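Researcher: We're teaching a course module on how sequence relates to structure. For the next exercise, students receive a sequence and then see the predicted structure as tokens, so they can try to spot secondary structure elements on their own. Here is the exercise chain.
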Amino acid sequence: MPDDELQVRDFAEPSHEPSDDLGVPVIFDVVALATHLIKRGVALTIDQLAVALYRVPGDDMPVLLDTLHRHRLITDHTLSGFVGLAWSHAERPDLALSRGRWRTLFTAAGYTEDGRRVPRPTQPLRLYRGSVADRRDDWSWTESRHVARTYAAGGFGNRLPGAIWTALVEPERLQARNTDRDEAEYVIDTAGLTISPISGGHVLADTAP
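Model: And here is the predicted structure for the students to work with:
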């Protein structure tokens, strides 16, 4: 379970780090960068937040974004443009932050598609997920059975072979839609969601396009 709060540290001279023309220091450690920005105490612009997030590894993007939001260094409007990005860039976003923190961020940001706040779909969506049974209720889903099948097959990112799962997802569960990796991804809140295996859960039994 991820920690609910990043523990900032007392770095001696963070202001002596070199900066680019947006004033974001060239610090690649997420704790050091967050500490610097918190001590500076100035809200980040959209451009500054983009630079800051790309300073750190993808798995640390959610942690930095959450920390800046906790300390009111970014507005909900600014958050909307980046919460889906941070989710998409983390290899294991469900482990980067607790579900409670993700729920807070997505609620503040509103429903977004590729970083734009838009109205939620008005009808339930049939979505799919490829994973082992123990991770079937994680939040990354897709509208493509082909993508789900690829993930169910395992063999990359240290993933084990699993099954294809499906659910009929109500609009209020939808948090974000990301298409930047051509995975037709939806981030959904799965609390209490009915999730069923396709074809008894056997990957090779699913032959639909």
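Model: If you want an answer key for the exercise: The longest strand covers residues 125-131. The chain has a mean pLDDT of 86.
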